[in-house]
Amino acid sequence: MRKYDESEIKKLQEETSIVENNGLKVIVKPSPKEDRPGYIDPVELSFIEAANQNNENGSNPENMPSMEELLTIIRDSMGFPNYNLNTVEIHTKYEELTGSGNKVGLWRYYPRKSQGNKKRSALVFFHGGGWIGGSVYTVENFCKLIAELADAVVFNVDYSLAPEKPYPNGLNDNYYAVKHIYDNAEAYGIDSDKISVGGDSAGGNYAAAVCLKSRDLGDTKLAMQVLIYPAVAIGDAKAPGYEWDEKLFDISEEQSQIIRNQCLVLGKPSKAEEDFMSGSYVTKAEDIYTPYVSPIVAKSFEGLPKAIIAGAEFDGLRLQGEFYGKLLSDAGVDTTCYRYKGMTHAFIDKLGHVPQAEDLCIEIAEAMKSL
Fold first, then answer.
1. Where is the Alpha/beta hydrolase fold-3 domain (predicted)?
2. What's the chain's average pLDDT?
3. Measured between alpha carbons, how far is 333 from 80 in angstroms, rounded to an integer?
4. Which range marks the domain in which residue 153 is found?
């Protein structure tokens, strides 16, 4: 079920442009219903305004929540009800892994028609949620659509969350899941040379970190990393040459308040302990300067798998995502970077509501088929 015309997908596929960011070529996807520069996609804007209205109606500043209550509020606010766009039967399997020391749920999806193919490509996906929340269910439809479009097996990892399980729990959970899949590729009917990892936001952080760890340990081989508006720099960690500057965003005067105060809040350098999410994940301040927490600070990016990096125009994380793409490209990594005009953070959660989420599924699937 789609809430938009399929012609908008065609526009996203065919009417792209190229811009350069510090020497990195970025493929810019148009906003199908908004041609003016500096404006939020109208569908995205309608969701933001609706959320603002709900917050105004339900706010009570006199009752400040406790930290436990705040965690519940944040977790409950994450995600967005989206749609299943599959046109073929998708098999869903579930198992639990314990090799990391935690009980980790592992979902997998694949088209029934392809189960006889024992050499399928695979994508291991890590959901977003600021390391403290999010859900495999929010990204389930996104994963299932990629499985259909790529005729592949897509895994969806239910890793441990902070603050109950801080770093390195989540990373270990995700890395062990990837190693388990790699070691058991034949049983899963996949080609061990065609295993990709991916994730959105904090999940993109995990995907980048898993690729670094895979290269460093040499016990797995990954074909591709799919980083969707990734958080590759936590707190004030940064690489030489990287700067966060609001002037790098094209902001219309009419929507400046919404864009500045609501869309660009992520990614601004700060002390990790000052941010509830990253401060819950990283309990030792010095850890934010390690590459498995902030991949942008890695000493070398050579030998990493090819990359797809997708960002939203009005997302404070876009700058670090594109800069990370430059670091990868400069190190000889085959890197494709997309920027979705008019979009804001977490747009893949709105699959079926906005065509950009479906378009990204198409791009990922095509890249998987070319491995």
1. 123-348
2. 95
3. 33
4. 7-25+32-56+83-369
